[in-house]
Every structure is written in C-alpha cells, then in structure tokens.
Specification:
This protein is mainly β. It has one domain. It is built from 1 helix and 6 strands; from the N terminus they run E-E-E-E-E-E-H. The strands form 2 sheets. A 4-stranded antiparallel β-sheet has the order 1-2-5-6. It has a two-stranded antiparallel ribbon with strand order 3-4. The longest helix is centred in the C-terminal third of the chain and has 5 residues. It starts with a strand and ends in an 18-residue tail after the last helix.
Length: 81
C-alpha cells in the first residue's frame, strides 16, 4: 500500500513493506539501528526524489520522525554497515 505524506515541506511517498517482502538488511535513518529481514517496515522517499533516495524506516521511527534528532549516534552494538 502506498500513501503520500507531507514532511519538512516536501511531499513523500510512503510504502508499507510486509515482513514476507522484507528480504534484506536495512539501516533505519530514524534510530540508526538495523532492520533485519522479515521485519515489516516503511519505505519512504521524496515524491520528486530519485529511486536511490528511498530509505527504509521502522514503522515506529517513521511515525516519530518529527521527534527524532538529526544528530543520531550509533550505539556500540550497532553493525557498521
């Protein structure tokens, strides 16, 4: 399912990814933690952006994106990829 959200003055395309469709590891820009395969999440990109600009977010992180700091620090346990 694909929706459009407005965030930071831009229009964003937001797609829900089911756990069955999530086959790779991703790094969430909201919390800088890994999204492992099999975990449902959100893919978001600016409507006017490129395909390479898509980012995979935990659902909770996407919903809390306005409360997230832009200067996140990676925890010691987080993988470095």
């Amino acid at each position: 399912m694909e929706n459009t959200d407005e965030w930071r003055g831009e229009e964003w395309v937001v797609r829900q990814v089911s756990g069955q469709s999530a086959a790779k590891h991703y790094r969430c820009p909201g919390c800088d933690q890994e999204i492992p395969p099999g975990v449902p999440h959100v893919v978001a990109w600016q409507r006017e952006g490129r395909v390479d600009d898509r980012r995979h977010w935990h659902r909770a992180c996407w919903n809390a994106r306005d409360r997230r700091s832009a200067r996140l620090q990676r925890s010691r346990q987080a993988p470095r990829y």
